[in-house]
Automatic annotation (TrEMBL):
Gene3D superfamilies linked to this entry: NAD(P)-binding Rossmann-like Domain (3.40.50.720)
InterPro entries in alphabetical order: NAD(P)-bd_dom_sf (IPR036291), Sc_DH/Rdtase_CS (IPR020904), SDR_fam (IPR002347)
The protein's name: NAD(P)-dependent dehydrogenase (Short-subunit alcohol dehydrogenase family)
Family membership: Belongs to the short-chain dehydrogenases/reductases (SDR) family.
PROSITE patterns listed in its UniProt record: ADH_SHORT (PS00061)
Keywords: Oxidoreductase
Pfam families, sorted: adh_short_C2 (PF13561)
Keyword flag Coiled coil: no
Presence of the UniProt keyword Oxidoreductase in the record: yes
Length: 249
């Protein structure tokens, strides 16, 4: 019997990078998977790769109505959600606090922090009804340090760390655990087409250089798999760097 037999995992940002690796890893461990992405085609490709144990749902985590439809689709497909991986996220431009455009600040906070909250808020009632659930949030090194990204991304990921602890504490007695992984630099598509603010990039360069060893998305998925599994049954509110030692520097 596999670890996640009879369990359902909802993964956001499942069309690419870390989310895609998580979807594949949870399916291999026996879960049925709801592969959510704002990009319909890429979510579909992930679900197709997994086969009949997966459904693809196109949803924008930053939009409340879209998140309601996502949760409804997940429950409609499989009847429950045991694991929620709040993984979808976007970068900023590395702009420093003095330079970041307000619209970019609002978009990054909306997707990375409010989006994580909206999906959690929509899925929690189902986990409460079940009396069990495991949430794994994808934060970032930028969730615990000031020099790993621009102001908006850094603030958003610190927010994800705070939300992780809040959910962990508030719902521990309900059988629900909530933990976060903090990926170091990982080979994904997140920086594809990104344009970086030269001042910010130069200021952050020395910190980023410390974490220059690139991870594979599967290494993030393995950590998420552990945190969501019964092997981590007493791990709650943990903020886990998965960075090859970068945060230890
Ligand atoms: P990625 O760009 O390869 O994948 C992210 C996926 O999220 C994409 O498929 C994208 O379409 C989707 N997405 C974006 N906005 C969305 C929205 N509003 N609703 C639903 N889906 C949306 O990037 P990745 O590196 O795999 O990123 C996954 C997570 O890992 C993010 O939260 C990111 O901040 C975090 N992270 C990545 C790194 C890294 O080096 N790659 C480091 C630290 C943290």
């Amino acid at each position: 019997m596999s670890t996640f037999d009879d369990r359902v995992a909802l993964i956001t940002g499942a069309g690419s990078g870390i989310g895609r690796a998580m979807a594949v890893a949870f399916a291999k461990a026996g879960a049925r998977v709801v592969a959510c992405d704002i990009d319909k085609e890429s979510a579909g490709r992930t679900a197709e790769e997994i086969g009949e144990a997966a459904v693809a749902v196109a949803a924008d985590i930053s939009d409340e109505a879209s998140v309601a439809a996502l949760t409804e689709a997940a429950i409609g497909a499989f009847g429950r959600v045991d694991v929620l991986c709040n993984n979808a996220g976007i970068m900023d431009t590395m702009a420093l606090p003095a330079d970041i455009p307000v619209e970019l600040w609002e978009r990054v906070l909306r997707v990375n922090l409010t989006g994580t909250f909206l999906v959690t808020h929509a899925v929690l009632p189902h986990m409460l009804r079940q009396g069990s659930g495991a949430i794994v949030n994808t934060a970032s090194e930028a969730g615990i340090r000031g020099g790993a990204a621009g102001a908006a991304y850094t603030a958003s990921k610190h927010g994800v760390v705070g939300l992780t602890r809040s959910v962990a504490w508030a719902h521990a007695k309900d059988g629900i655990r909530c933990n976060a992984i903090l990926p170091g630099p990982t080979m994904t598509n997140i920086a594809t087409n990104a344009s970086f603010d030269p001042t910010g990039a130069a200021r952050l360069g020395p910190v980023l250089a410390l974490g220059e060893r690139l991870a594979q998305p599967e290494q993030m998925a393995d950590a998420a798999l552990f945190l969501a599994s019964d092997a981590a049954s007493f791990v709650n509110g943990a903020i886990v760097p998965v960075d090859g030692g970068w945060s230890a520097a």
